[in-house]
């Protein structure tokens, strides 16, 4: 019969404690990773929302400026139709020459 000495029991207990500690550390690391990913997702989502809001504002401003420009050009054409026709003809002529090269 083999009897275990006090040193063998202490070593076995210590090995068991190390195994439990290792398992707990792995679980803790997984918890930290999942929590960190959640924070990163929230931060990214907030950033995307801010960028999206800014893009919408920019689009509205550009659209409003475009509408104003179209109205101004329309008003100019109504006020001076012959000059507008001459300008359009000149632009067409220049564009045609540049594209034919």
Give me the secondary-structure category: mainly alpha
Radius of gyration: 38 Å
Task: Tally the helices.
Answer: 2
**Helix and strand succession?**
HH
Number of strands: 0
Largest sheet: none
Percent helix range:
over 70%
What would the average pLDDT be, to the nearest integer? 83
- The count of domains is 1
Q: Please give the alpha-carbon distance between the first and last residues.
A: 105 Å
Q: What this model shows, in words?
A:
It contains 2 helices and no strands. By secondary structure, it is mainly α. The protein has one domain (6-76). The termini are far apart. The model has no long low-confidence stretch (mean pLDDT 83).
Topology:
Blueprint: H1 6-79, H2 81-100
Features of the shown structure:
single chain; mainly alpha
Please provide a brief summary of the model.
This protein has 101 residues and is mainly alpha-helical. It is 93% helix and 0% strand. The protein has 2 helices and no strands.
